């Protein structure tokens, strides 16, 4: 059974903005990448899943429950990290986590300490004075300390340094291993490629394609095999262009940018 | 029905304002009550003679012959209206609209807590603050009255009067809370939550000055609060207070209902 189910969701903000007749679903234990440029409707879709917005048409369901009506029941098993995190600025990180523990009615056996250690986060400072990366870590701890079965990340690594990004990728992999269902939105192909099984591409509020990561990769990575005069030259060439060397032959690959991938899906429509 | 953890956090945020306003009220109420004295009251009355319009605008009229009449005139026209009103304006906006605006609301709604529970909790925080301020004023008045003029102040009359005052502030709090829940952003929340009560108060000041502008009293809810009438237990004054209180509760309910149905772009 699908855990997350978006069924003909429509919200028209006028002027072509919004999401239109969106249909996709995420299966149990699957990591689904929700890929699209800024303003394509990713966050709008997620806000419907979170029960922040009421669908104009169609509906969203999580575990068979309506995302608007039963959002409180859904939230008990869901963890959410928004792209632009903001907290009660007057609190320290530790106060905020303690507040969320109480607010969510969590017992002492929650994952707060484990997650703080994982992200090497010291939450004792004022949230107002924390860097973007620290806030993001705090958001991740707060979203995951109740060990939710479903995780929704909205552009989780935007503004994070590469070290932190790979920490995050490891975390997603570990959670997937445990059978968690994950929805991750991003505007970077590389990010979803590293973490997800399947990818849905959204543009201008409409779903352009849903495909497995492998299929997308096959379609959008072009390989060239070049034969050089000598093995030495081939070695140097492989080193410079990050290719695979086999005797005098070197295979290099280029990856299409997200825009090019979109162009592929919208091919020749002049967009 | 309500979240104890959230209530505690919000009450902690209210305390600073409550202490400040409590201190200001302590100062004013004790000084004004201590000034009740036929001779010194003549001094205040001389101000009224000097600038009748200005003093009348803030509800001060001359010739009070009882302590409670004196208090109606010098406390219930300005001090006891303005400070609880400021509290409602500041906290009302902060409890809902500000959290939506700065996206802190995400933490509250992305949790297994119903929107209704959040709305009722925030509503209760504002109500508690209002009750604390009016209750504290009542105790203060009783203590000061007993200290300076033992036996002068009729407790039952004072309780009726302050019951009416509470109803008035229920309505003001209701306006601020409803504005905070209904407004699409803090600009409108502050605009309506602060604008409406202040405008109503200004109209009341105009109406108090008498003459042609007296008809302005039909355009402000402050007219429904009639201190002298409450002390005398006039049915009109009691009905006015009841109307204020019911209106306040209706506005609180409207705000909570609106928050439950609201699209949150957070």
UniProtKB/TrEMBL annotation, chain A:
This is ABC transporter ATP-binding protein. GO terms for molecular function: ATP binding; ATP hydrolysis activity. Residues 4-229 form the ABC transporter domain. SMART domains: AAA. PANTHER family: ABC TRANSPORTER ATP-BINDING PROTEIN, ABC TRANSPORTER ATP-BINDING PROTEIN NATA. It comes from the Bacteria. InterPro entries: AAA+_ATPase, ABC_transporter-like_ATP-bd, ABC_transporter-like_CS, ABC_transporter_ATP-binding, P-loop_NTPase. Keywords: ATP-binding, Nucleotide-binding, Transport. Belongs to the ABC transporter superfamily. Pfam families: ABC_tran (PF00005).
UniProtKB/TrEMBL annotation, chain B:
It comes from the Bacteria. The chain crosses the membrane at residues 15-36, 56-83, 124-149, 161-183, 190-207, 237-260. Keywords: Membrane, Transmembrane, Transmembrane helix. This is ABC transporter permease. It comes from Faecalibacterium gallinarum.
């Amino acid at each position: 059974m699908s855990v997350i189910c978006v069924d003909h969701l429509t919200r028209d903000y006028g002027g072509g903005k919004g999401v239109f007749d969106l249909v996709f679903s995420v299966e149990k234990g699957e990591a689904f990448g929700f890929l699209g440029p800024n303003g394509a409707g990713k966050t709008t879709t997620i806000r419907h899943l979170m029960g922040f917005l009421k669908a104009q048409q169609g509906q969203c369901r999580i575990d068979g429950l309506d995302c608007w009506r039963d959002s409180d029941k859904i939230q008990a098993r869901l963890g959410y990290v928004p792209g632009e995190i903001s907290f009660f600025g007057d609190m320290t990180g530790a106060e905020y986590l303690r507040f969320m523990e109480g607010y969510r009615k969590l017992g002492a056996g929650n994952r707060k300490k484990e997650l703080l250690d994982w992200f090497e986060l010291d939450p004792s400072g004022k949230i107002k004075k924390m860097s973007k990366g620290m806030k993001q870590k705090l958001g991740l701890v707060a979203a995951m300390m109740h060990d939710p079965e479903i995780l929704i990340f909205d552009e989780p690594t935007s503004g994070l340094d590469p070290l932190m990004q790979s920490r995050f990728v490891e975390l997603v992999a570990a959670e997937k291993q445990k059978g968690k269902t994950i929805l991750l939105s991003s505007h970077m192909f590389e990010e979803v490629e590293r973490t997800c099984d399947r990818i849905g591409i959204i543009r201008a509020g409409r779903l352009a394609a849903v495909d497995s990561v492998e299929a997308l990769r096959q379609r959008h990575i072009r390989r060239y095999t070049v034969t050089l005069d000598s093995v030495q030259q081939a070695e140097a060439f492989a080193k410079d262009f990050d290719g695979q060397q086999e005797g005098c032959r070197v295979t290099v690959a280029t990856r299409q940018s997200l825009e090019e991938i979109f162009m592929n899906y919208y091919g020749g429509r002049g967009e | 029905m309500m979240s104890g953890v959230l209530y505690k956090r919000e009450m902690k945020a209210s305390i600073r304002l409550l202490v400040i306003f409590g201190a200001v009220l302590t100062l004013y109420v004790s000084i004004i009550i201590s000034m009740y004295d036929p001779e010194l009251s003549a001094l205040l009355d001389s101000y009224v003679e000097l600038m009748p319009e200005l003093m009348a605008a803030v509800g001060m009229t001359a010739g009070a012959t009882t302590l409670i009449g004196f208090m109606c005139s010098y406390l219930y026209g300005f001090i006891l209206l303005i400070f609880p009103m400021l509290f409602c304006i500041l906290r009302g906006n902060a409890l809902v609209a500000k959290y939506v605006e700065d996206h802190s609301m995400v933490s509250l709604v992305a949790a297994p807590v119903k929107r209704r529970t959040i709305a009722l909790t925030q509503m209760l925080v504002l109500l508690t603050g209002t009750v604390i301020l009016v209750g504290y004023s009542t105790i203060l008045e009783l203590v000061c009255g007993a200290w300076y003029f033992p036996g002068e102040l009729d407790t039952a009359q004072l309780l009726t009067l302050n019951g009416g005052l509470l109803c008035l502030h229920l309505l003001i709090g209701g306006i601020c809370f409803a504005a905070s829940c209904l407004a699409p952003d803090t600009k409108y929340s502050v605009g309506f939550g602060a604008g409406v009560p202040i405008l109503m108060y200004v109209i009341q000041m105009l109406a108090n000055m008498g003459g042609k502008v007296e008809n302005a009293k039909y355009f402000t809810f402050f007219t429904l609060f009639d201190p002298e009438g409450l002390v005398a237990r006039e049915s009109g004054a009691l009905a006015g207070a009841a109307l204020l209180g019911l209106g306040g509760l209706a506005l609180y309910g409207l705000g909570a209902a609106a928050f439950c149905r609201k699209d949150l772009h957070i």
